[in-house]
Each structure stands twice: as C-alpha cells, then as structure tokens.
Write a structure and sequence with these properties.
15 strands, three-stranded mixed sheet, 10 helices, alpha/beta, 286 residues
Length: 286
C-alpha cells in the first residue's frame, strides 16, 4: 500500500477553492514551492475528498469502497452531499476498481503505517451483519496491510483515525493531544497502539486552556517532498511545529505551516481535504 511519505501528487475537491480560499491558496502555494503537482477534482459534493476517494494500493491500482457514512444519512440535505466516487473517478480520468465495493468506509479512517493501517472500530459499526473475520481478512488481503484497530470514541461521530494519530516512521506513531479532551480515551488509544508499534509519542502543549482546534495539527498534509502543518494564530502553532520537526527530521527544511482557520471551522483539516497518490505515469491522469 502506498504510504503518505511516498506520495508525489495531491488532489483537492474543486469546491475547496471557493469554500476555503485562504486554506486553498496557502496549500497550493506551499505545494508549488516544493514542486509538488496538484490538481482539482470535478464532480465532488463536498470538500473532504480524503473520505470518498479510493485507496492507492500501488501505482496503477486504486481500490474503491462504498462511501456511505451514517453521519450523512440524518436528513436529505446531508445525504445530498455524499459524493459518488465512481462518477468522480470517471470524470477525472482515474481508473478505480471495485475490490472493496462491499465495504462501507471513510478514507479518513485509514492511517497508513508501513504494512499496517490504523482504523477505529467505527468501521465495524458501519458494516453491521458482516462476518468480522471475513471483513478483516478481505480488507487486509486487498490493501496488503495488517489492520490495527483503535476503540471508537462514540462522542466523536466521524470515528476517523486521522484525527487521532499519524505514522512518523521507524515504527513510531504520533498521537494528537487527545488527553487534553478525554484522558481515558487517550489511554485506550495509547494502549492499542503500543501493542503494534515500538514507540507512541503524543503532542503536548503548555499554553494554558486547551484550544479547541489544537487536535488538528495531527491532520497534516504529507507528501514525499513536503509536510504541511496547519496553523490557527494561537501559541500552540509554534509548539506543534517544534515537536513535529524534532520527531520527523527527514523533513528538515521541508515543513510548512499554512493558516487553516477558514477550513477547520467546517470540522476537518489538511489530510481531510486532500487526496494524495504516488504518480509514476503508469496510467493517464489529468
């Protein structure tokens, strides 16, 4: 399975440009500086393209799944925002297979980690009646990675693992400052991760009262060439940058901070609003 640090091309929903112009300009400018190709996806119904775009197993193979999140089924207005992944792929010249078509999934609940994928158990809640052992085996065989399952914090309706942790290489995972919001859940996450990784780090801040957006630093945009971390005009910005820079020295000189204030108010951040792939020109992309 292609890892975040191997990706060299970024896609955004075309809706992001008008919905969050400050974030859009900041991200695309940072990508341009580091020579990363980016494109816009037409045919999307919301800005969170990570959730509905396919998983890249290797260059030339995109595994599609069923994007039908329960949190968008509450009313017709929300339901109308569910993007048709197959249509978007066709409209944008992408070839996507249906190897995971029987699986209801959000891409934001897939954190790639060198032979592993970190997911919350929310994925099981969205596939009721499916045999658990078959589900895990089918998913793992398709993506070629072992499933690491975190408990789902049911107080957080999305259940996305990319708001909890990210892989930082060398068998290490970095957790967000979840302990500032729910100590017990943070302990449960740590225990689950420690069973599969050599080292689990946590972001920590000493700026007094915890800021409501401080969780989002973990939701960065990562490619082979650059790591883009959000900023919000708060003291935690510099602390997050210092910690992440220290833990990921391979990005020395290639870490950017971009203002995400007009994006995070919608409930997500940089990983959520981007879709990254490894493009080796093995198939025709726009």
């Amino acid at each position: 399975m292609i890892q975040d640090y191997q990706c060299n091309r970024v896609f955004f929903s075309a809706l992001l440009r008008d919905c969050c112009p400050k974030t859009f300009h900041g991200l695309t400018s940072a990508l341009d500086i580091h020579g990363v190709t980016w494109s816009l996806l037409s045919g999307t119904r919301d800005i969170w393209c990570r959730d509905y775009m396919p998983l890249q197993i290797y260059p030339g193979k995109l595994a599609g799944y069923r994007y039908y999140p329960d949190y968008l089924l509450r009313n017709e207005r929300d339901k109308a925002t569910i993007t048709d992944t197959e249509l978007v792929c066709r409209m944008n010249g992408l070839r996507c297979d249906s190897s995971l078509a029987s699986v209801v999934l959000d891409g934001g609940n897939v954190v790639k980690a060198d032979g592993r994928v970190i997911m919350t158990s929310k994925v099981f809640e969205e596939n009721p009646g499916v045999d658990l052992s078959w589900f895990i085996d089918h998913f793992e065989r398709t993506v070629g990675a072992h499933m690491v399952v975190l408990p789902w914090d049911s107080n957080e309706e999305f259940g996305h693992s990319d708001g909890i942790c990210r892989y930082i290489g060398n068998d290490r995972v970095l957790m967000t400052n979840y302990a500032d919001f729910d100590t017990k859940m943070a302990v449960r996450f740590r225990r689950a991760l420690e069973a599969h990784f050599e080292k689990v780090e946590e972001l920590e801040f000493n700026s007094g009262k915890v800021h409501k957006y401080s969780w989002a630093y973990i939701n960065w945009l990562q490619t082979e060439q650059v790591l883009i971390i959000p900023s919000f005009g708060i003291p935690e910005d510099s602390q997050a940058l210092e910690q992440i820079s220290r833990l990921m020295p391979e990005y020395a000189g290639s870490i950017e901070q971009v203002d995400a204030s007009d994006l995070v108010i919608h409930g997500g951040c940089f990983n959520c609003c981007s879709w990254t792939i490894r493009d080796e020109q093995t198939y025709n992309l726009p």
